[in-house]
Amino acid sequence: MNTELISFHTTATSVSEALETRHSIREYLPKRIPNEILHRVFSKALRTPSWKNSQPWKVHIVNGNKREELSKELIQTAREFPPRPETSWPESYPSDAKRRMFDLGMKIYEAAGIDRKDKDARNEFMLRNFDFFGAPTAVFITTKFELNYFVGIDLGCFLQSVLLLAREEGLGTCAQASLGSFPDVVRNSLELPEEEKVILGLSIGYPKPNSELNSYHTPRESSEDLLRFY
């Protein structure tokens, strides 16, 4: 399927189409998502499987004035302090993963019109994470569970369900570990209990058409390299 020909203003009619055409969206229309669509996406995602049906996720969907207020607080905090996530981010990767990550960075900066050597421009682009790339809705995924490998798998499965269900509705998304950078800011803004850990989030909305930044689809390694049949 030629993903370049897929319009995000159309819905996906199969899981395969949603998976093949979904990619990270970093420019959105200001159009608000109807509440019934948001409710449909996240209610369906609750069917995601989890370890012994533990369902370790809680979901916080932020719109309107609260979204604007939280964005300003996150941007201000990110300008002044380094990230302090609830769980450590990976620091070392195999060489093939490093190659893919470097290539992604180069392509995204190119699409955004940023010279990779321009540190100030790169920093400002990073801050766009905390304005949710202009998306009308920000989502934070939290848990009260002790963080471990299996809880991480469950949260990842839940996130994937949301990404594909959003694509089914003609919505774009960007999954963001960065939205777990400053958990205290999110907890305070959303009045969450201290034991509720802010792990990650996503931006969701209607993709801006004819956007150079939205046109880049990350490649995948071939099935011959990654799949083994016995």
Automatic annotation (TrEMBL):
GO terms for molecular function: oxidoreductase activity. InterPro entries: Nitroreductase, Nitroreductase-like. Belongs to the nitroreductase family. Residues 20-206 form the Nitroreductase domain. Transmembrane segments: none annotated. It holds the Pfam family Nitroreductase. The lineage of its organism: Bacteria, Pseudomonadati, Spirochaetota, Spirochaetia, Leptospirales. Its cofactor is FMN. Keywords: Flavoprotein, FMN, Oxidoreductase. This is Nitroreductase.
